[in-house]
From TrEMBL:
Keywords: Dioxygenase, Ethylene biosynthesis, Iron, Metal-binding, Oxidoreductase
Documented EC number(s): 1.13.12.19, 1.14.20.7
Family, as annotated: Belongs to the iron/ascorbate-dependent oxidoreductase family.
Protein name: 2-oxoglutarate-dependent ethylene/succinate-forming enzyme
GO molecular function, one term: dioxygenase activity
Family matches, as PANTHER family: 2-OXOGLUTARATE (2OG) AND FE(II)-DEPENDENT OXYGENASE SUPERFAMILY PROTEIN-RELATED (PTHR47990)
A Pfam family reported for this protein in Swiss-Prot or TrEMBL: 2OG-FeII_Oxy
Reactions catalysed: L-arginine + 2-oxoglutarate + O2 = guanidine + L-glutamate 5-semialdehyde + succinate + CO2; 2-oxoglutarate + O2 + 2 H(+) = ethene + 3 CO2 + H2O
The UniProt record lists the keyword DNA-binding: no
Residue ranges annotated for the Fe2OG dioxygenase domain, each copy included: 169-284
Pathway stated in the Swiss-Prot or TrEMBL entry: Alkene biosynthesis; ethylene biosynthesis via 2-oxoglutarate
InterPro entries: DIOX_N, IPNS-like_FE2OG_OXY, IPNS-like_sf, Iron_ascorbate_oxido_reductase, Oxoglu/Fe-dep_dioxygenase_dom
Source species of the chain: Pseudohalocynthiibacter aestuariivivens
Cofactor(s) needed for function: Fe(2+)
Length: 333
């Protein structure tokens, strides 16, 4: 099974036959493999120069990474949800990186001390990186919005169905570095660390999972490793291709559409090379009530997005040890 490649340029214009066709192609990709490769993005946001600037954050000295690191790894720091996560031994997932929130482009965000999801991002003093991260966050928000409206149309919903929810969105821009795994990174129980690929045993870099948000827009930096699980349970490679983004569908979209669109299971395997990737998790405001959509999927009990997000995200190793810091708020009466 191939990952479809879709030129989404027509999604940024008004109604047209070309746009209708793209809507159908995206919907088909969502229903089949759950991944697509997209081109036709705005603002030259996939240039090698821009990605080089984004990844320059990994050149920070360890002492500076430490000041950005979350409290569960560095107790004297205050941030728990945004910021740096370090390499951790003993898990199928082996990566370091940074999670950046909407405050990078929206200076009006005010944190609520009682809700870690509203925390501001601790940012490094790297002016070139900062400009690149702002530009990229903006371009991904715009692209996510265009894909979201396409999905609404394909579901026969009003095309602006989701717009209000994303007004004050909480999307996460993440930058990831996966170094080759040293032997001390493996735990004693070794069976969870390995995957078979073309008759060889490969170590995992990212455990099998579904993303928690609406959709994920992923820039891969040339080194392959991302795999999708097909509906038949087979793992297939989602190869990187210069000038494209990889897109998959998240748990929020599955929940919100009552299962009409399924979230995509994926993982990352290693090949001995260093790997970098930059996912953007497109997410609505934490105050959005996720409730059944007219005529779409199976009925379900409404849930607050912040509650969904906290539950989904605190299950990942990079968010280890923080689940107790936020209680569900519920959807009220
Ligand atoms: O590195 C990749 O290609 C995928 C990363 C990923 O799945 C994630 O961060 O959720
Ligand atoms: Fe993922």
């Amino acid at each position: 099974m191939m990952i479809p490649e879709i030129d989404i340029a027509s999604l940024f214009d008004g109604p047209s036959d070309a746009r209708d066709l793209v809507d159908r192609e995206i919907f088909r990709a969502a229903g089949e493999i759950g991944f697509m490769t997209i081109t036709g993005l705005p603002d030259d946001c996939l240039s090698r120069d821009l990605r080089k600037d984004l990844l320059s954050i990994f050149e920070l000295p360890d002492s500076e990474k430490r000041t950005l690191t979350r409290k569960n790894f560095v107790p004297e720091n205050m941030n728990v949800y945004r910021g740096w996560f370090p390499l951790q031994n003993g898990y199928p997932t082996y990566k370091e990186g940074i999670d950046i929130g909407a405050d990078i482009i929206d200076k009006t965000r005010v944190p609520d001390p009682l809700d870690p999801l509203t925390e501001l991002t601790p940012l490094p003093d790297l002016p070139t990186w900062r400009v690149a991260a702002e530009q990229y966050y903006g371009a991904m928000s715009k692209t996510g919005g265009a894909l979201m409206r396409s999905i609404a149309r394909a579901l026969s919903l009003p095309e602006m169905q989701f717009d209000a929810a994303f007004q004050n969105g909480t999307s996460t821009l993440r930058m990831i570095h996966y170094p080759p795994r040293p032997s001390e990174s493996f735990g004693s129980e070794d069976k969870d660390f390995w995957a078979e690929y073309k008759g060889e045993q490969r170590y995992l870099l990212g455990a099998a999972h579904m993303d928690s948000g609406f959709i994920t827009l992923l820039a891969q930096d040339g080194v392959e490793g991302l795999q999708a699980k097909t509906r038949d349970g087979e793992w297939i490679m989602v190869p990187p291709k210069e000038g494209t983004l990889t897109v998959n569908f998240g748990k929020l979209l599955q929940r919100w559409t009552g299962g009409a669109i399924k979230a995509t299971i994926h993982r990352v395997i290693g090949n001995g090379q260093r790997r970098y990737s930059v996912p953007f998790f497109f997410e609505p405001s934490i105050n959005t009530v996720i409730a059944p959509l007219e005529g779409c999927g199976e009925p379900f009990a409404p849930v607050l997005y912040g509650d969904h997000l906290w539950e989904a995200t605190t299950g990942f190793v990079e968010q280890k040890g923080i689940a107790h810091l936020r209680q569900p708020k519920g959807v009220g009466v």
